[in-house]
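User: Design a sequence. Structure:
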């Protein structure tokens, strides 16, 4: 098959560190309408480490490959439409594409099943939210009972479980993410590739509940703590960060474990939700600076496994900065 020869050629050029030729080869093949080249180049345009990051180009390439019946490209294109990645958000367009894919692809049908149960408007935003219950003023903490349905919770566990990795923390000295004993858990990030249309709708719900825009959220994360696992006392706000993590929303995805309460260590406020309950707290005070009272811990799990979804919400729109590409193409 021609595409196998193409991918072999591109890989050989990369192996020989002839990156510009590899990129040009892929760009030419994608422009000539080769479906595999379009998907591969979309991946490069998203990653931004080989060629320049260009999410609009990636979205167009995914659309082209989707028109040629490439399943993964078609599904990712629906997600880009829903979240407005690489162009305008188009919720009705995302749903129309999901409906066209649903008869062929279970993942599309599954998302539509979840979305069909949601109370949302024509733009995917929630039309109603459960009433929050204030737990404390200082720190500023509310619980939101029944924030997600058991099906939504199960979906997040199912989607993230296969890609769980040991959790990382930001090292203040280098700004890099590194493994650290403060965080004995596994995490999976629902980033650009994994924030599907259903998960985007959940992120819109998180945005509405926190009075923020969806673009302010860091990728939603699935966290799993096994027996003995914990997240020791910490602040979610980052030292000296200009685009601060102003709030955190945690959703309890299961309840069949012992221990694992979330504890605000300075006041002793302790919370353990049932499946679907959320905890929303501010990490900064009214002046926008880190609030020491927001220091909190995920206490050790003593038996079973604890699953939560966690979203750190920034003061302004947030995106991981693109890497410096190897070739300027
Ligand atoms: O697991 C918990 O209860 C706390 C999680 C947490 O602190 C976080 O995700 O920032
Ligand atoms: Fe935290």
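Assistant: Done.
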């Amino acid at each position: 098959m021609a595409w196998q020869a193409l991918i072999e050629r591109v890989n050989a050029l990369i192996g020989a560190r002839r990156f510009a030729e590899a990129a040009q080869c892929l760009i030419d093949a994608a422009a000539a309408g080769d479906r595999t080249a379009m998907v591969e180049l979309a991946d490069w345009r998203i990653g931004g480490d080989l060629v320049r990051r260009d999410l609009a180009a990636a979205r167009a390439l995914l659309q082209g490959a989707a028109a040629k019946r490439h399943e993964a490209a078609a599904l990712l294109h629906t997600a880009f439409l829903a979240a407005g990645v690489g162009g305008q958000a188009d919720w009705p367009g995302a749903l129309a594409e999901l409906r066209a894919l649903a008869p062929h692809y279970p993942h599309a049908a599954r998302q539509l099943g979840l979305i069909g149960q949601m109370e949302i408007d024509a733009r995917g935003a929630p039309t109603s939210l459960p009433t929050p219950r204030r737990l404390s003023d200082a720190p500023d903490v509310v619980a939101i009972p029944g924030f997600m349905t058991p099906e939504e919770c199960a979906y997040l566990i199912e989607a993230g479980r296969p890609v769980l990795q040991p959790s990382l923390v930001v090292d203040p000295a280098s700004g890099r993410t590194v493994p650290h004993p403060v965080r004995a858990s596994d995490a999976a990030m629902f980033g650009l590739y994994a924030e599907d249309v259903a998960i985007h709708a959940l992120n819109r719900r998180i945005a509405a509940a926190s009075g923020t825009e969806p673009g302010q959220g860091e990728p939603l994360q699935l966290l799993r703590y096994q027996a003995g696992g914990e997240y020791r006392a910490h602040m979610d706000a980052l030292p000296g960060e200009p685009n601060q993590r102003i709030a955190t929303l945690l959703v309890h995805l299961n309840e069949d474990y012992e221990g694992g309460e979330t504890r605000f260590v300075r006041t002793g406020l302790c919370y353990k939700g049932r499946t679907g309950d959320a905890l929303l707290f501010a990490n900064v005070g009214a002046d926008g600076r880190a609030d020491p009272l927001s220091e909190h811990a995920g206490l050790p799990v003593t038996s079973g496994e604890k699953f939560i979804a966690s979203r750190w919400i920034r003061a302004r729109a947030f995106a991981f900065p693109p890497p410096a590409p190897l070739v300027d193409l």
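Residues 2-15 form the longest helix (14 residues). The chain has nine helices and 17 strands.
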